[in-house]
Structure formats: structure tokens, C-alpha cells
Please model this.
Amino acid sequence: MVYSSHGGNSSLLTFLSIFVALAIALTSTFAGQFAKSALTLDEKLFSAPYSMTYLNTLFMIPLYPIYLLIKKNFTQTTVKTVHKDAVKLLEDRKGSRYPNWTILIAGLIILAGWIAPNYIFVVSLKFISVSAATSINSLNAALVFIISIIWLKEAFSWFKACGVLLSIAGVVLVSMDSNFTGSITGVILVLSCALCIALYNTTFKKVFGDLTFSQVLFFLSLLGLTNLIFNTLPAVLMIYFDLDRIVWTAVPWTAIFANALLATLFNISVNFGIAILNPLVVSIGILMGIPISAAVDILLRDLQAGLTILIGGVLISLGFCLNTLPFDEWIGKRNSVVDKRKHQAV
Model:
């Protein structure tokens, strides 16, 4: 799908960008809030972060089939054409399909890389406020920059380097306010989550490069199937050995399914923003989620935000902006325009 920058399509693109940014902000905020509600309602009756992570991943299975149905019924594109593009995910650069054992091993590794940060984040919500977790977790953008320079050999950027420093300073300040943030255990868990996400994202970029929207949804559905086949037994064992505590008559089903649905919508919004619109839309959406989460915590959970929280939140937001917005690209384009005008003047 390609949008023109002229006329009605430009208005549609603007509307979609605003809609997706708001969707990312709201789904990330309320998915976290529902997860926290489920886990802190009564820990003696329900405390099952692994089972919640397992369920959330199952919700991704129908994404690709739904996408195929939408393409078939509302566009002129054939299912065969869409699927032909999607399965390129399983092919090497020469167009040959990877052996089944390679796909299996890769699937298990990717599943572990997906489950780990999501599980850690859900566990952290037992110890930390949602807004603090969201703020600290945005540090993953700074970690991606560091890992990308070391591993992917990407160009150094002073903007992103400053963003790293601001993010770290913001995390330190947020961590100092135990009344709003929670315990240091939660902070450490979210930092671990941010590191896992950064490693996952850079590894994904290294292996797959840039994917189309159909390939991303195909990937997420395959990930959900891998979770169903290989992660069901571990999830059952977690419940059996009481590592996940579940009293079935007291399960907060509303909060659990609301969290799973919103987490799925968040994943769709993020990947739609990256593949169809612009990664900038995703960055803005995640950034918008930080103050929205803080507002919800203050209004609905009666948390009091001190000066250190406010300053820390601002520093983290500024750091996130510097690490995700393409300042180097913008300045490069501006310099090119200036140079072009100088040549024209001569």
C-alpha cells in the first residue's frame, strides 16, 4: 500500500497517523493497567504472570488469517499474491526455503526472546506502577542504539548519544521516588525487560531486515502457533507447581482478556505504523503513552507524583525523542536544501 502526498490521500495519511499514534498510546497504557489489576487484586487467589504472557501470545495466532480475509474481501489483491510475499520470511536471500529443522530451532529461539521480556514486564507490575514501568521500559530505545553501534556497525549519532545520557538520568530520578514508582525490585525487572527488548529488536533487524506488513503478521501468527505447540506444557507445569497461582473460581477474567486483547491491538498498531505509515508515528505513540499512563496512575490509583518523577519523566521523554526521531536525517535534508540553494544562487 502506497499513499500519495497529494490531495485526499494526504488527508487520509494524516488521519491514519493520528489514529495509530493514539491507538499505540492508549493500548499500551490500558494493557498495562489491566495486567496490574489482574495481578494485584488478590495474589493469594491469582498470581499468574507466565500464564498471562502465554495467553497474550496465543491471541496473535489469528492475525494473519484475518489479514488474508480482509485482503480477499476488501481489496483486489489475491490471497495467493499476499501469501507469496509473506512466506518470503522463510526463504534465504537466494529465494530457497530454509530447512525445517532450521525453522524449528529459529522459532524456539525467537519464542524465548519474545516470552522473556513480556513475562518480566508483567512480573514487574507487581512491584512498580504502570507509568514508571512504561517510562523506564522506553530506555530500550537507548539500548538499541548502543547495541546497534557495537553489533550492527551503525553510524554514531550525537543526538542519540545525548538521548542515552538523558534516559539514564531520567531512570535514576524516577527510581528515587519509591512512593510513586514502587520497589527497586520492579525497577531492576523493567531494566532487564528493556535490555531483553533491545537485544530482541537488534537481533530481529540483523536476521530479517525490513519486513512488509503481511510478513510481520505472518511472523506473529507463526510465533503464536509456536507458543501453542511448545509453550503449553511449560505453562501447565507453572500452574501445577504453583509457580503461577490460580484459583479458578477467582480468576479476574475481564482484566486478563482485556489485557490480552489490548496487547494484541498494540502489536498490530505498532507493526502497521512501521510497515504502512512511518516509524516516527510509532515513536510518537509510545511517547504519548508515558504521560497518559502517569495520568491514569494519579487519577485512578491515587499515586502522588513528586518533583523527581516529573523531572525524570521529562528527561526520559527527551531521551526517547532523541533516540527515535530522525534528527540526523532531518538536518542532512536541511543542509542539502541549503547547499542546493547556494548553488542555484551562484
Summary: Strands lie at 46-47, 245-246. The CA atoms of residues 72 and 78 lie 6 Å apart. The chain has one domain: 7-345.
